[in-house]
Amino acid sequence: MARRLLDIDVTSAAIISAWFGFTLWAAYSVFHYNHVYIYAENGLIENMQACILAIASIVYLAAVLGKMSEKLIILFCSLLCLSFFLREVDVERFDIPYALIFIGSGAGRNTILTAAFVAIFIYAGLKHSHYKKAAVEFAKSRPGWLLMAGGAFLLTGYFFEKNYAILHHHVFFEEINELFGYVLILLSSIAAKTFPEKC
Predict the structure, then answer these.
(1) Confidence (pTM)
(2) 139 contact partners, CB below 8 Å, separation of at least 6
């Protein structure tokens, strides 16, 4: 696992370096100057999370369009990023047509995403043996490891969200862990273009 995560290209190294630099700046701003707006609801970190998720979803989708096989797994990842994006963004607050608000929030969003995930699982179920093997191969691949590592940081963020024992800025730790989780998911989307050929 460590080898797969550390074997990164220039783009991935630049993204991780940017996250590290931003984290140092944000921590200094929060703990030294008490700039809580950085991690506030709809603040800087949450907006960055939404942007990263949107990019990851698009990159996964681009990987789907360029593939001859295993499109369903990568499409699932793209849809997963889209669902996270819609969770982070309050679409109903935007000045956009009601149809888009319905699709992007509340019952409309939940219905559409659920239908899309169910369709993917039904199709995969029809080719059970093939996609079971492909899913295992994806889990062992670099994009799979990065995706799971991203999920682990999201769970860590959830721990900080519910941990009121940390009296000051526990939400900062939640948001910064989620941000890194989404960064790892973005790196997974970048690596997905080589799956299954080079993973």
Answers:
(1) 0.90
(2) 145, 148
